[in-house]
Q: What sequence folds into this?
C-alpha cells in the first residue's frame, strides 16, 4: 500500500489487520508484496466496481466488500484454481466515514476467513466521484488452468447450482414480484447481493473439465465465449437449465421468463464442458463439494450457442445479457 | 478481461493487441491470465489514479497511460525486481471517445515496448464520475526483494537521479516560475508528466542494497518509512541532496526552496541504504545503468529522519509531503 498521513492511518487501522497472516504481504508495511508461486504459474483475474453502477451507494458496506471478493473468487474457481490472495485499490469519496470503512473492512475480513485468502496490498485514493473498487485476485492452478478454449465435439455442457436467481434478486429489489413467499424473496435478494462462488468444486475442476468459465454476464452470453474460443457449437435445452424453487415458481406463473433467465447475469455459477468419459469423476467431485451439477447440453461441431425449447426448436433470445460498459 | 458487447469491442480493439506477446495473457480471450513465476515469488504492487486528483482530465491520454505504468514500474524497480507485466482496470466516463481510448492505448503500447512488459488482463467499466485507473504490476525479484526493512547503523543513505523536479514541474504547470529558461521549464514539466523509473539500476539493487523504496511522496517522508520499519535513524545533509540544473537555479534565487524540495513528492527516484563494503558494487551498477547515485547520509541507531542544514543543525521541515487521501 502506498501513501501515508491520513491515508496511511486508514490503511493501518482498517486494512493492515487483513494482511496479518500472509507472510508475503509484509503487513502492508512495504511498497510491494511477494506473492507465493507454484510451478504452473499464478492464475490472475481482476474486476472493478463503481457505486451507482455495480452496487447501490446505500448497499451495506459489508455486502459490497463481500461481493467484490466473491465475483473474483468465482472467476478463479471457474479456472480450476484455488484462490490465495488479492490486491485491492479503493477510491473513496472524501466524505467516507470511519463507520463505513470499518464495516467494509469487516466484510473483507469475514470473507477472507471464509475462503482462506489474504490481502497482499493495494492503494487508497480520494475521488470526487463515486466509490470505485478494483480487486486483482490470485490463485494456484490445479492440474492446469481451465480455459475457455478446450471444448470438443462430444463433450457435455454442465452448469453448477441454479441459473437466474441473481437477476431475479436484482429485479426484486427494483420492483417486488407477485406470488413469492417472504423466504423466496430473501433467497433471491441474497443470491444477488452475496454470490456463492463454487470454490470447493472449482478446485477439482481441472481434473475433468475440458473448458470452463464463471457465469456472470448471462449463461448464454458466457457459453458463447466458450463456443467462440473453442471453435465449437454448444447446443443446450432450455428445460434442462436448473432453476431454484423461487425461480421455478415465477416461471410457472410466467413461462416466457424461463428464456429471459438464461441471459440475466449475476449467477456466479460455473459453466463448463466435460468429456463423457470424465462425467463420473465430475459427479464424484460435485458430491464431495456438495455442489449441484446439471448436464444442460452437448458440444457439437460448428459455432455459436443454440438453446432448444420444449419443442426441440431453437429459441430466439432477445436479451443481450449485461453489458457493463453500455448499459449500467 | 471480463465483459462483452460494447465493452468487449473496446477490449478487442484497443487492449487485446497489448497482450499479444505474453503467452500467459491468452490474448485477453479468457477470464483469467497465467502469470509466469519464479522460485522467489512474484513482486506485486498497485496504484490507482483518478482524473482531477492525480492527473488533469485534459492531460494528453498517452501521458496519463505512461505515467500510470511508470509510477508502478518505479515501485517494482525500488524493490530490486524486474517488471514483466501488469493488470489494468479502467473506469471510463460514458462520453469517452474512441480517439481518447486509442491515444491511451498508444501510451500503454509505447511504454510496454520501452520497458519490456505485457498486459495480462483487467476489466473495463463505465463510471458516472471521473476516469479512474488501477494498475497491479508484477515483477521477478532479484536475489531477494529489497524491503523497507533491513537498514542497519553504519549503512549509507543513497538516492538516484535528482530530487524535487517533479514537484517543481507540477508547480510550474500551476504558475510559471520566474527566471527559468524554456528548456528548464520543459525539463521540469516532463519530469512531472513522464517519470523515468530507474528500472535498469533497480534490477541490480538486490545485490547491494540493505533497504529501499521509491521516492513518490517526498524524500523525507519516504525515508521515514525506511527508518520506521528498519528501526533505525537516518541522518542526511540537505546540501548533499542532488538537484537538477533547473532546480538548482530556482534554489539559488530562493534558498528556502531547497528544504521544501525534500518533501515535494513525484520524484520517482529510488532511495536506498547500502552497507559501506558494498558501495563499490553499487557505484559499478550505477555506472552500468547510467544512473546517477548520490550518498546523502548515514544510518544510525535511533529513530526518525534528521535533515541537517549547511550549519550542521537539524532543519525543521514543515511540508508533510503529499497525502493523496487528504489533500488531493
A:
Amino acid at each position: 500500500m502506498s501513501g501515508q498521513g491520513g491515508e496511511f492511518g486508514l490503511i493501518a487501522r482498517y486494512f493492515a489487520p487483513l494482511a496479518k497472516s500472509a507472510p508475503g504481504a509484509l503487513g502492508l508495511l512495504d511498497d510491494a508484496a511477494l506473492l507465493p508461486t507454484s510451478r504452473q504459474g499464478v492464475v490472475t483475474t481482476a474486476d472493478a466496481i463503481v457505486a451507482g453502477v455495480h452496487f447501490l451507494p446505500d448497499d451495506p458496506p459489508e455486502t459490497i466488500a463481500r461481493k467484490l471478493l466473491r465475483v473474483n473468487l468465482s472467476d478463479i474457481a471457474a479456472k480450476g484454481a484455488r484462490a490465495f490472495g488479492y490486491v485491492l485499490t479503493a477510491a473513496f469519496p472524501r466524505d467516507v466515514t470511519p463507520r463505513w470503512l470499518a464495516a467494509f473492512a469487516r466484510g473483507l475480513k469475514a470473507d477472507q476467513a471464509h475462503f482462506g485468502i489474504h490481502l497482499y496490498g493495494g492503494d487508497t485514493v480520494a475521488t470526487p466521484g463515486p466509490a470505485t473498487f478494483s480487486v486483482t485476485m490470485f490463485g494456484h492452478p490445479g492440474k492446469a488452468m481451465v480455459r475457455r478454449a478446450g471444448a470438443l465435439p462430444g463433450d457435455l455442457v454442465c452448469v453448477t447450482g441454479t441459473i437466474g436467481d441473481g437477476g431475479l434478486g436484482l429485479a426484486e429489489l427494483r420492483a417486488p414480484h407477485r406470488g413469492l413467499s417472504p423466504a423466496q424473496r430473501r433467497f433471491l435478494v441474497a443470491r444477488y447481493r452475496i454470490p456463492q462462488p463454487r470454490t470447493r468444486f472449482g478446485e477439482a475442476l481441472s481434473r475433468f473439465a475440458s473448458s470452463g468459465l464463471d457465469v456472470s454476464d448471462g449463461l448464454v452470453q458466457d457459453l458463447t465465449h466458450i463456443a467462440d474460443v473453442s471453435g465449437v457449437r454448444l447446443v443446450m435445452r432450455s428445460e434442462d437449465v436448473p432453476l431454484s424453487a423461487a425461480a421455478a415458481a415465477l416461471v410457472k406463473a410466467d413461462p416466457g421468463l424461463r428464456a429471459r433467465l438464461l441471459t440475466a447475469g449475476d449467477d456466479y455459477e460455473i459453466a463448463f464442458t466435460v468429456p463423457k468419459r470424465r462425467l463420473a469423476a465430475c459427479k464424484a467431485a460435485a458430491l464431495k463439494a456438495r455442489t449441484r451439477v446439471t448436464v444442460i447440453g452437448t458440444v457439437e461441431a460448428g459455432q455459436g450457442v443454440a438453446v432448444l425449447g420444449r419443442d426441440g426448436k431453437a429459441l430466439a433470445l432477445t436479451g443481450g445479457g449485461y453489458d457493463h460498459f453500455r448499459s449500467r
Observations:
- The domain at 5-141 of chain A is CATH 3.30.1330.10 (60s Ribosomal Protein L30; Chain: A;).
- Chain A has a mean pLDDT of 90.
